[in-house]
Amino acid sequence: GVVEYPVLSGMLMYLGAIGAHTDTEFFQHSALLLAPFAFAITIMLALMTRWWVLLWAATPPLVLYAFHNWELPVVATAVGAVAVMAWGASTNPRTGDRRLSLRTSAMLAAVLLGIGFCLKLYPGFFALPLALYVLTRGAGSMIDARRRTEDLDWTGAIMTAAAAAVTVIAIQLPFMIVGFKGWKAALSFQGKRKSDVDTNSIWYWGLRHFTGGQTDTYNSLVGMLSPLLILCAFALAVYLGWRVYLQSGTYPWIGVSGAMLAGFMLFHKVHSPQYTLWILPFFVLLKTRWPIIIAYLIADFLLDTTIFRLFGIYTAHAPMQWWVMAGVNIGVWVTAAIHLYLIFAFVRAPLREPLATMVAPRPRPSDDPEPVLATSS
User: Fold this and answer.
1) Which of 268, 277, 281, 309 is most buried, taking the most CB atoms under 10 A from its CB?
2) Among candidate residues 293, 281, 342, 272, the one with its CA nearest the CA of residue 75
3) Crossing angle (nearest 10°) for helices 322-348 and 276-285
4) Which phi-psi region, left, alpha or beta, contains residue 323 (left: φ > 0; alpha: ψ -120 to 50)?
5) Is the Cα dihedral 154, 160, 161, 162 positive or negative?
6) How far is CA 6 from CA 12, 183, 298, in A?
7) Where would I find the H helices in the chain?
8) Tens digits of per-residue pLDDT, 92-121?
């Protein structure tokens, strides 16, 4: 009787169950709860990228996974954080300045990321690159690039990180107080979960073949390597983002967030097809090569349409079909290779328009040339 997801996803399940007495009714209630999040994501992406939103709204993943495992609310928090930062950086037509200060925008975005952490964890990772974006004072200019590490906003960065942390604590604490054993059960479940056939990971379809059938050895290696490599991927993404900052004067927090997510999806011991909804908005927000997007969508479709058939074959102890095994392996390994590529590509990927213009640097007083004093002869 354990809900495997964090507390806010559990609350959505609870709300969907109210008045439901069959699985069909529960699905219908859940779909009604989730549909508004799909519309909200679509609207936000459309405002930031115009017709590129069709990569989200008119491709197979949204049809396949919209009501699959409560992914839409967590995606809405991640996209919402980007939208808040973009709106805050846009120009107020009355004053010509930012609508919101960088610190205020970042703290509001951090609150959304904290809420996302309490839904499905991954948006919480983005608080780190967001804090680094504030630390480096947001969208810079060439003079900022020359200054590099001077004049960092440590206070703003700490306030941003604190906003995310306080949000997580405020949401989690009541559940911990009212029912600590139930709150801990989800964490215990994930900690004990093995990387089996239903996880679609590189570990099961790769490392398992090199452990000689030793289940304990395999599980021990996965338990050690998976978190270690995830941390390494995070560190690499942050480092690559810092190099971009030193060159351009702007820390690419959106690209670094996408790179961190790609690393997490690559090395985590569990990978479900519906996680495609997590990374799909980054294809919309960041300029990504068309062959990469198309290959990813095809591989994801192959995985989704074969993995559940494979489960049925295993359950029925029926003969394995070659096309099922081929589809699963193509899906797993093509998406894994693309995730590895995206760790590097997302960091340097330019933003799409009009998002890029919305967050573009503005001239600052420090950028102005020294005044030239007129002299009389």
Assistant:
1) 281
2) 281
3) 40
4) alpha
5) positive
6) 10, 8, 30
7) 7-17, 23-49, 54-57, 60-65, 72-89, 102-120, 127-135, 142-147, 154-178, 180-192, 202-205, 215-248, 253-267, 276-285, 290-316, 322-348, 355-358
8) 888 888 999 999 999 999 999 999 999 999
142-201 pLDDT, tens digit per residue, is 444 545 556 899 999 999 999 999 999 999 999 999 989 888 888 888 888 888 887 889
DSSP character at residue 149: T
Residue 57: exposure state from Cβ atoms within 10 A (0-12, 13-18, ≥19): middle
Measure the CA–CA gap between 258 and 266, rounded to whole angstroms: 12
Integer Cα distance of 264 and 116 in angstroms: 15
Degrees, nearest 5: CA angle 228-232-237: 150
> Please, which residues bridge with residue 286 across strands?
351
CA 231 to chain centre: 15
From residue 374, how far is each of 275, 365, 377 by CA, in Å? 64, 21, 10
Average pLDDT, the chain: 90
The CA–CA distances, whole Å, from 317 to 311, 312, 314, 320, 321 equal 10, 8, 5, 9, 12
d(CA 249, CA 364): 13
Please provide the DSSP assignment of 172-192 as one string: HHHHHHH-HHHHHHHHHHHHH
* Residue 354, preceding peptide bond in cis (omega within 30° of 0): yes
Task: Supply the DSSP symbol for 152.
Answer: -
CB atoms within 10 A of CB 249: 21
Which tokens in the block code for residue 103?
């610190």
Which of 279, 286, 285 is CA-nearest to residue 300?
A: 279
Q: Tokens for 156? A: 């703003």
Sequence letter at residue 141: S
